[in-house]
Protein 1
Amino acid sequence: MGVYVSVRGWLECDEQQLAAVRQVIADHSDGHYSDGWGFPARHFNWTSYVFYGGDVRVSAVDWFMDQLRAMAAIPASDEDGDRVRGLFVASGEVAGQVEWQVRGGSVTTRPTEAGLAYLAE
């Protein structure tokens, strides 16, 4: 059967960055786990959101992290300097639970806070 990791989370960006995020997803398409990416049916107001949810094999975590790193590296598109940012929680059968923080142009891995422990139950 294999070892799986439950991955769920979101990114926040502007419309210009959203186009770049979509391109990263297309460039990494695998015809399977790529289907976990989702977008609101209609954009409203100023922040664009991108969501991911899926149970992926441990062997696919690097594939996912490559995408997150590429998305984090997308530059700010205006004078405000806002980068793509977001939070993902990964719960695994073997490695436990961590969060991946997308901010400041990179992805940081850290243990989740106790308040998120219910997601690994």
Note: The radius of gyration is 14 Å.
Protein 2
Amino acid sequence: MMTVKPVKALNDNYIWVYVQGSDAVVVDPGEAAPILTYLQAHDLHLLTILLTHDHDDHTAGVAKVLDVYPEATVIGPQETERFNTKTVAPGDSFTLFDQEVSVFLTAGHTSGHISYFTNDMLFCGDALFSAGCGRVFTGDYQAQYDALETFNKLPDNTRVFAGHEYTETNLKFAQSLEEYPEAVDKALQEVSLLSSQAIPTLPSTIGQEKQINVFLRAETLDEFKALRDERDNF
């Protein structure tokens, strides 16, 4: 049986642990201690680390994790090459747990940001959040808009494993807009209850995001850019 579990790290990061039997794949270990504790507590063998992009809060734990699991492979984009055992590019695919993993370019937050899609699961780093998306640090709003279009084409039942717990703030931002999706109010009630109990609001689904994510619902590049600029100053 395959499962995916969140491990909280830093202030609001999630390190995702994809498990089959006693084997594990770890996504974006921004901090070593919590993921090492989790792996050891559950007697898991680390096979692979997946990296989505080159920001410290997603990569800073890699070296220490490899000290403990030196045989683990590291798969990532060109921008994380210094960590990688295997560098992948958009359009590539590879196999994990006998399942094909597809690599998508989801740039904008960084120039080489990628996401991984497998078995109706999306590991998207900072390219997509529940009710939000990452800041466009590159200034390339077209790239980020294209990434959102990629996500929009995925099946509605795709589970979204994003890199940060920003859902409540993102929904409050949506409520601050003059017009916002009807589903936001109910979603915020549910998310606020989860957050008050320190329960993760992730994973979401693409179907849910199509209802509540104002960035994913933006119909033009200009609309997306205006929303992103407002969110940056929220």
Note: DSSP finds eight helices and twelve strands in the chain.
Protein 3
Amino acid sequence: MRIRMTTSTFRIGDSFVHRIVELDAPSSPVLEFLPALTPEQFAESRAWLKSQRALDDEDRVLICYQSYVVRTPQHNVLVDTCLGNHKDRPHRPLWHQRSDNRFMAGLAQIGLAPGDIHYVLCTHLHTDHVGWNTRLEDGRWVPTFPNARYLFSGIELEYWLDRNAKTVVPAIADSVVPILDAKQCDIVRSDYGLSDLLSLVPAPGHTIDHYAVTLGKHKTDAVFTGDLIHSPLQARWPELSMRLDHDPAQGIATRRSFLEKYCDTPTLCCFAHFPSPSVGHVKRWGDGYRCDYVNE
């Protein structure tokens, strides 16, 4: 297992994209993570997966938990907020009651403090994408980014608030509700245009109203995937659904559309969970696709 903090930076026109990695860690065995993956497909893929550091020696999927900071001439925008500290996640030991400074050190490494973030974009409201929305202060959860507006999809938010009202969903209770209470939330459609450079793009399937984020006046300079895809195996075979997808069929359609749209284009694709360096260009590979990574 490998755990480390990393930042990397890419310049795109007048904007900068920074990766902040909070954790690299194994998830479940690949045949559990992607239930439709056949043993034959896996055998064919094992070598290249290991060469990309996407698979460990126990055949577990290696996941990168990270955020992207987009610095445009106007705004500092944080896309997703990883795991967070002091969060009660007993079912996930590596996520449970974390107390390290990797994420905040990464933010400082790129020259920013929490008060410098103008917007927080949560592609969806799963635990590993909302953790640093809040921090613990005097026994209360308060917004980590005091000057930011947090953008939640209205459909996504309604779904999770309804579930939380029936049975407490810890990530919603400690990382989403406090943002509402602090009145720092903007409830938007998943096709919302934030500025002339940043737009939300509907990408449902993994969750009910998941969105991706595009950068550029023509929405083609870069795209931030969120969890519409988790593993390079899902590029090679887009029909492979991750085991926790809300609507697998919709997720497959979203993934195919994404991969086909950006295949063989100059758009920089910034993947949420692909192994480092996580950023690259989508290329055709037989009847599927692959990511050709780029370095900063």
Note: The first helix runs from residue 30 to 33.
